[in-house]
Amino acid sequence: VRTGNGYDVHQLEAGDGVTLCGVFIPHDQKLKGHSDADVALHALTDALLATCGAGDIGDHFPPSDPQWRGAASRIFLEHAARIVREHGGTIMNADVSLIAEAPKVGPHRQAMRAKLSDYLGIDIERCSVKATTNETIGFVGRREGIAAIATATVVYRGGKR
Amino acid sequence: VRTGNGYDVHQLEAGDGVTLCGVFIPHDQKLKGHSDADVALHALTDALLATCGAGDIGDHFPPSDPQWRGAASRIFLEHAARIVREHGGTIMNADVSLIAEAPKVGPHRQAMRAKLSDYLGIDIERCSVKATTNETIGFVGRREGIAAIATATVVYRGGKR
Amino acid sequence: VRTGNGYDVHQLEAGDGVTLCGVFIPHDQKLKGHSDADVALHALTDALLATCGAGDIGDHFPPSDPQWRGAASRIFLEHAARIVREHGGTIMNADVSLIAEAPKVGPHRQAMRAKLSDYLGIDIERCSVKATTNETIGFVGRREGIAAIATATVVYRGGKR
Ligand SMILES: [Mg+2]
Ligand SMILES: [Mg+2]
Ligand SMILES: [Mg+2]
Where does the record place the site Transition state stabilizer (chains A, B, C) (predicted)? Predict the structure, then answer.
C-alpha cells in the first residue's frame, strides 16, 4: 500500500464562476490557469502519480503546451488513474480538501464526489471532498486564490506492496 | 485501507492561551473560533471523516449553530471516530502537524498524544503530534493564526478494503 | 499500516543555490537554516517519525544544537528511517511535494528520487518527488521561502498493524 499527496493553487480574478472537482459553481470570481484551473483535480492528479513515482502533473501536461489551453482537468486525472492501473495499482480512496474563502462547497459536495467516482472508476464511498476557509488570512483569506490538498491511497499487486 | 487528510486554520488574537490537541497552553494570544478553536482536532476530525466520504466538520457541526459555541472540540473528533467505526473502520493511526510560530508544542507533546489516544480509543503509539514554525513568513509567521495538517489511516472491513 | 505527514518551510535569501532532496541546484537564492535547510528531507523526516509517534525533527535535532550547523539533512532522514525500522516498520513509500516559485525541480527529479531511494533503502519506484509553484501569491509566490509537504506509508509488524 502506498499513499501520495498533492497540492495545488490557482489565482482568482474577476469572473463568473469556478470549476472545482469537475463541477461548475457560479461565483463572482474565476480561477486563472492554462486549463480549466480545477485545483482539486490537479492536486489529486499529483497524489495518484506520486503512488508510483510517475512524476507530477507539470511533467505530463506542461502548462507551456497550447493543446491543454482550457482543457477539462478530468483528462489529467483520468490519465493519472490509467498510469496507476498500468503499474498494477488499485485505488483505495481519493480525498481532497479545498481551501477557499468562497464559494460554499457543501451544496456541491455530492456532485463533486460523483464526478470523482466517475473519473476514477471507484465507488463513491471511496471519494471524499471537504472544504474549509482560511479564516480571512493569508492569500486564500484575501481571496487571491484557492488551494487544494489531496491524498490518494493505492494498493499495488505483489506481497505487501 | 484508506487515508484521509485534514487542514484547518484559526486566527490568533490577544489572549491568555491556546487549546491544541485538547491541551491548554498558556500564551499571550488565543485562537478565535465558534468552538474552542482547536485547529489540531478540527483537522483530524476532517481526516477521519474523509476516510468514509462522510463530509467535513462544517457539515456535521455548522459554525452558525449556537450550540457549538465554546464547545470542546473533542466532541467533534469523537463524533468522527464513531462514524468511522459505524462504517466498519478501525483507526490505524492519527497524525497532526501544527504550524505555529509560538507557543512551543514539544513540552506538551506527550499530553496531546495521550488526549488523542483517549478520544480515539487507540494506542498512544498510533497517535502522533508534531510541530514546526513557518520561519516568520506568511500568515503563520506573522502570528496572525495557527494552521494544522492531519492524516488518518483507517482499515475498513471486507477484502482488501 | 500507518501514514504520516510532514510540513516544512525555510526562508530564501540571496545566494548561489538550494539543496532539495539532497540535490544541489544552482539558483540566485539560497535557503536559510541551521542545517543545509533541505525542506524536502525535513518534511519527510517528520512524516516517517509520525508513523511511530516518535516526535518530530526539532525534538531529535534541536536547531539550537551547534553540532547540526550546516549538517547534511540526510543525517536526519536516515535517523528517522532507522527509528521506523527499530519499531518493526517497513517503509512502503515516501512522497514529497515541493512548493517553490523557482528553481525548476523537474530536471532534477530523477536525481532526487535516487537520493531518497539511497537514504531510505527502498526501491526508487517507491520514492516520489513532485513540484508546483504557488502561482506568484503568498510567501512562496513572493519567493520569500520554499515549502514542502511529505507523506510516508509504513507497515508495522503484527496482525493488521
Ligand atoms: Mg494547477
Ligand atoms: Mg476550525
Ligand atoms: Mg527545516
Answer: 34, 133
